[in-house]
Amino acid sequence: VKESFTKAELDAIADKLAVDDTNEDSWSIASVIWKPHHNSLTGNYDVNVLIAALEGKGKKVVWHDRRNDASAINLDQSPDTLTGLMLNVPVKRFAGLWNSRHWIAVRRIHGLWYNLDSDLREPVTFKDDNEMKEFLNASLTEGGEILIILEDE
Fold it and tell me: For the chain, where are the E strands, in sequence order?
């Protein structure tokens, strides 16, 4: 996919953000594994890396106000305007011993919305906007955050 990112590209963005970080006083030996913007152990990147990567591809990232449900997101926008959504959801791994967060991409492709969660065996198609909004609302209820990805004007 021409708009995807490689691990090397995301690592470079995370490293640049770390170099640009003026708060180096908070660094410790653990910062080697848990870098400020990338956890080498889990592979997770923080939101700053994702926003910088998306902005580098001409996208605009808008936080969804989680006080509103998913119906506040205009899914009817043209694909030339609304690129997709990124969700950051809480997850429990290793029988609940490890609490973390996970990024999920949701994208409209040829008029259909897909859940592109990397934890799934394959992408899942939402049957309609209502099913997708139910998924988004469930994510919000569980403590998830939604980023709206738009084409930058």
Answer: 59-63, 82-93, 98-109, 112-115, 124-125, 145-151
SS3 33: coil
The closest alpha carbon to 20, from 43, 44, 40, 49, belongs to 49
* Residue 108 contacts residue 132 (beta carbons within 8 Å): no
42, 57, 72 — which closes off a domain? 57
In the chain, how many domains are there? 2
Q: Model's pTM, two decimal places?
A: 0.81
Cα–Cα distance measured from residue 66 to residue 145, given in angstroms and rounded to the nearest whole number: 7
CATH code: domain of residue 63: 3.90.70.40
Residue 124 is classified by DSSP as E
Question: Within this chain, do residues 13 and 84 fall inside the same structural domain, yes or no?
Answer: no
CA 57/CA 128 separation, integer angstroms? 28
What DSSP designation does 44 have?
-
> pLDDT tens, 24-40?
565 555 555 556 665 56
Domain that holds residue 127: 59-152
